[in-house]
Specification:
Layout: H1 12-22, E1 23-26, E2 29-33, H2 39-62, H3 74-101, E3 104-110, E4 115-121, E5 127-134, E6 138-145, E7 155-162, E8 169-178, H4 179-196, E9 204-207, E10 212-214, E11 221-224
Parallel strand pairs: 6-9
Antiparallel strand pairs: 1-2, 2-3, 3-4, 4-5, 6-7, 7-8, 8-11, 10-11
Helix pairs in contact: 1-4, 2-3
Length: 225
């Protein structure tokens, strides 16, 4: 049975703040939760989008109770109502779906099934998997940080590096947050993956360059040099 290693300590303040914010333990391992500055603003925007979408759909029904205008034929008015109804319903539906599209991003590190799963938590509190990577497919970890002089305040993203058989490596995003909080999480992952390999260490990389994003199957990925 795979043992769960403790969170490495890189200073009392960092260790105490990282685990309750980004890492939550579970029976099968632990979950990693994104923490980004724009998360609350995004939630408000999505809630507003859902409300606006519902309002547009309701408004489309109100078009059919508008009395006929004098000097306008019934056929012309009917065509206008049909067109506006389709427009309002279509636009309202898109806004509503946009508001519901994404929940909170979460990564599950399953130490028993030896799998790392990236997905989102739906409104019904159900985890929806977007990408699943077995432990043996992970070739390294990459910490990509903002080009900032203050490392403690800069935001960073943690990636799994996978060998896609080409000249460069494919990386899958697993966690976003302040760089100071991601570093002890990275050490925890490195230790768990090392234990799973019988003590064989896993390479770790760092980058402060802008990544080139691309669609590569389920989940978010980018090509890293």
């Amino acid at each position: 049975m795979t043992m769960v290693s403790p969170l490495p300590k890189s200073g009392a303040e960092t260790s105490n703040s990282a685990q309750p914010v980004l890492l939550s333990p579970a029976q099968w391992g632990y979950s990693l939760h994104d923490q980004v500055n724009g998360q609350s603003g995004e939630s408000i925007a999505r809630a507003f989008s859902r409300i606006l979408g519902i309002a547009l759909v309701i408004s489309s029904l109100g078009l059919w109770v508008i009395p006929s205008a004098s000097g306008m034929g019934d056929g012309v008015l009917l065509i206008m109502k049909l067109g506006l109804t389709c427009l309002f319903i279509g636009l309202g539906g898109l806004l509503y779906m946009f508001g519901k599209a994404n929940g909170a991003s979460v990564t599950q590190v399953d130490l028993y099934n030896r799998t790392i799963r990236r997905g989102r938590v739906s409104e019904k509190n159900a985890f929806e998997t977007e990408a699943a990577v077995p432990f043996e497919d992970v070739k390294g970890l990459l910490l990509s940080s903002d080009d900032s002089a203050n490392a403690a305040a800069s935001m960073a993203t943690l990636y799994l590096r996978l060998d896609d058989g080409e000249d460069n490596m494919t990386a899958i995003e697993i966690l976003k947050g302040p760089e100071a909080l991601l570093r002890p999480i990275r050490e925890r992952l490195l230790r768990d993956l090392k234990n799973d390999r019988g003590g064989l260490p896993l390479p770790s990389f760092e980058s402060r360059k802008v990544a080139r994003y691309s669609a590569a199957g389920p989940g978010l990925a980018f090509q890293a040099a």
